[in-house]
């Protein structure tokens, strides 16, 4: 996989900084700009990073249904890629996302269909607030020659 050129590397690192600052929507926007002009495995990798950020943003906004959907599709974007990819230990990222999603996935069905009642929305908010307070995933850009 081709490394980023210097301008792209700066943008990618800015996305990582935004992600680590829990500004997941903004990280997604930065990475989406890179993704639009890319191709091949790097494009798929960026799509996985975008989906990881959006998954966390869905949680922040109290949308477990959206988070659950991305929890199922996000790992597929990384399949077959070397780890780390472009300095990101995506296996650790996926493990961190799975850890956060475990209690969300065990919520009652009503939590995934908020129109069914306010009690489910309150329960979802409490679970999500606790998860995000406990610590959201963070990223480090590693040297691709390092093994995580």
In brief:
The chain is an all-alpha fold.
Describe it:
With 148 residues, the protein is mainly α. Helices cover 66% and strands 0% of the residues. It contains six helices and no strands. The chain has helices at 6-20, 24-36, 40-60, 64-78, 90-105, 118-134.
Topology readout:
Elements: H1 6-20, H2 24-36, H3 40-60, H4 64-78, H5 90-105, H6 118-134
Helix pairs in contact: 1-2, 2-3, 3-4, 4-5
Entry keywords:
Hyaluronidase domain-like; 148 residues; mainly alpha
pLDDT < 50 runs, ≥5 residues:
none
User: Radius of gyration from the CA trace?
Assistant: 16 Å
The CATH first-level class comes to: Mainly Alpha
Secondary structure tally, helices: 6
Q: What's the order of the H and E elements?
A: HHHHHH
Fraction of residues in helix: 55-70%
* CATH fold label: Hyaluronidase domain-like
Tell me the major beta sheet. Answer: none
Number of strands: 0
Mean pLDDT: 86
CA distance, first residue to last residue: 18 Å
Strand share of the residues? Answer: under 5%
């Amino acid at each position: 996989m081709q490394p980023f050129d210097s301008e792209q590397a700066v943008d990618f690192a800015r996305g990582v900084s935004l992600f680590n600052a829990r500004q997941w929507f903004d990280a997604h926007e930065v990475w989406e700009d890179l993704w639009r002009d890319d191709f091949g495995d790097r494009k798929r990798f960026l799509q996985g990073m975008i989906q990881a950020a959006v998954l966390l943003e869905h949680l922040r906004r109290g949308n477990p249904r959206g988070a659950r959907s991305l929890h199922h599709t996000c790992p597929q974007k990384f399949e077959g890629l070397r780890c780390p990819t472009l300095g990101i230990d995506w296996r650790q990222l996926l493990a961190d996302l799975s850890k956060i999603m475990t209690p969300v996935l065990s919520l009652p069905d009503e939590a995934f269909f908020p129109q069914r009642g306010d009690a489910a929305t309150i329960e979802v908010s409490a679970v999500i607030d606790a998860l995000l307070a406990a610590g959201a995933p963070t990223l480090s850009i590693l040297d691709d020659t390092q093994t995580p």
